[in-house]
Amino acid sequence: MKITIFGSGYVGLVTGACLADVGHEVMCVDVDADKVARLSQGEVPIYEPGLETLIHQNLDAGRLHFTNDAKAAVEFGLLQFIAVGTPSDEDGSADLRHVLKVAETIATHMTEYRIIVDKSTVPVGTASKVERTVAATLEARGAAIEFDVCSNPEFLKEGAAIEDFSRGSRIVIGTESERVRQTMRECYGPYNRQRDKLMFMGVRSAELTKYAANAMLATKISFINEMANLAERLGADIEEVRHGIGSDPRIGYHFIYPGCGYGGSCFPKDVKALAHTAEAAGHPAHLINAVEQVNARQKSRLFEMVSDAFDGDLAGKTIALWGLAFKPNTDDMREAPSRALMEALWQAGARVQAHDPEAAEECLRIYGNREDLDLTEHRDETLEGAHALVICTEWKAFRTVDFVKLRERLVEPVVVDGRNLFSPESARDAGLTYYAIGRGASV
Ligand code: NAD
């Protein structure tokens, strides 16, 4: 099957590489010429476990192509996936500029029947907007060509994207057309052998399913963070509470880890966009608004704790920071808690010495070479001359530390653990002043 994918970011690249890997012929198209040139040479601009190998294998096999020639790309695939970004607009709504631009591009170049598959996360009603854009562009061309638009939201997680795409729990497809159903069955057939994961539904339901899924997950995070803050004030330990509630199968252990707030390219913008959709639909979503507010407050917790440890005087202090990415196994720093922390530290006159196994390059791209930021190659180099250590991301490499050595290397024995990686008792026994999330102000 011939498939075109617009957008070679996290979702487009993973989709393209995975579909090529099961034998489809895939053309990935992006407006970023430099990105296309690098990808054509097998140079993958993002870090995602296993992706580089998969791209190399399928480039070599001749099943995967990269281009910025939109006309060739529209000619190529019966299926035209849209996997471009849908960032937050100023009012929190999803900015559909890129999605509608792709719709217009497809309609400008198409010469025969095409199925347009919306994989970007888009608000309910977007498929209709795409349909109207394509119809209007075709009409302006004086062309009468059949097409369908369907919704196929993506549920992959960065850091485990290939695994999620290949072995995800479901493949949601919103369409009313039998022709589209059959074609999508064929497209996903290789991923649908063990059991039928395809869930066909109405287009609007498919669009809402994606937002409902992300809002539910974000709600779990904000819920446990709210409980953590409460635990801190009430003298309870949130980790004990987490075990206590997670054992109830109606609640479960998934996604109830207290921390320094959710980040990334999806939850923050999708929660805001859903709140905006609800408002526009005349049903202000109180719960969703609260999820967002709790998260915004949580992101400032790390700075508050560091500041408390130094009685509000951070001028001239050096803070070691472990983890820049918004979560482990990715280099993505979009809306990462580390950014809120670093920016607040700089504002307060502190210096940052940071280490991340994958996100240093991304950090430099965002902040450039600043005098008050040092990026170190090794974890423990951040500790040289540092007054405190803050852990922002739960990379595996941060889970084991020698507390005694840590205390000896830090100027002040202050550790702020934004991911509750350590035992407060062990930290205390080693003489550290240890702050964590929902486990008492310090021990
Ligand atoms: P991204 O920013 O990493 O990549 C988007 C790509 O689209 C960029 O390379 C950009 O150059 C390209 N692009 C923009 N306009 C284009 C055009 N007109 N033609 C061709 N290419 C164009 O975005 P992403 O993280 O891959 O997300 C894409 C969509 O998928 C978003 O709607 C997002 O919400 C959704 N999503 C993302 C994830 C995730 O974990 N990143 C998971 C599920 C869903």
Structural commentary:
This protein is of the alpha/beta class. It folds into 3 domains: 2-200, NAD(P)-binding Rossmann-like Domain (Rossmann fold), CATH 3.40.50; 211-297, N-(1-d-carboxylethyl)-l-norvaline Dehydrogenase, domain 2; 300-436, NAD(P)-binding Rossmann-like Domain (Rossmann fold, 3-Layer(aba) Sandwich), CATH 3.40.50. The protein is 44% helix and 14% strand. The protein has 17 helices and 14 strands. The chain has helices at 10-21, 33-40, 51-60, 70-76, 97-109, 126-141, 161-167, 178-188, 203-234, 238-246, 267-280, 286-299, 301-309, 337-347, 360-367, 403-409, 424-429; strands at residues 2-6, 25-29, 64-67, 79-82, 114-118, 147-151, 171-174, 198-201, 318-322, 351-355, 373-375, 388-391, 414-417, 433-436. The strands form 3 sheets. It has a 6-stranded parallel sheet with strand order 3-2-1-4-5-6, sandwiched between helices. A 6-stranded parallel sheet has the order 11-10-9-12-13-14. Helix 5 runs parallel beside helix 6 and helix 11 (267-280) packs antiparallel against helix 12 (286-299). The longest helix has 32 residues, at 203-234. It is globular and about 75 Å long. The protein binds nicotinamide-adenine-dinucleotide (NAD).
